[in-house]
Design goal:
Radius of gyration: 17 Å
Order of helices and strands: HEEE
Shape: elongated
Helix content: 10-25%
Number of strands: 3
Structural class: alpha+beta
């Protein structure tokens, strides 16, 4: 048995996680700070980066589907 065959077989047993394009906020300090936050998990209308304190800009990212009941 090839070494890679054992590793590959473990991937087939995992359930597929649905993904969708999700609105996010991305830190404006591109190349310096890589923080992003899902839009529906923020408290402010226009959030500030929790790591570096810079403004955040709106964007889209393909992410696993999550439900935020709040």
């Amino acid at each position: 048995m090839r070494e890679g065959a054992l590793i590959k077989s473990s991937f087939f047993n995992k359930p597929e996680i649905p993904e969708q394009e999700s609105p996010i906020w991305i830190c404006s300090q591109e190349g310096i700070c890589k923080v992003w936050i899902r839009e529906n998990f923020t408290f402010e209308k226009i959030p500030i980066c929790p790591v570096c304190g810079s403004n955040m800009v709106h964007g889209i990212k393909v992410l696993p589907v999550l439900k935020n009941e709040s």
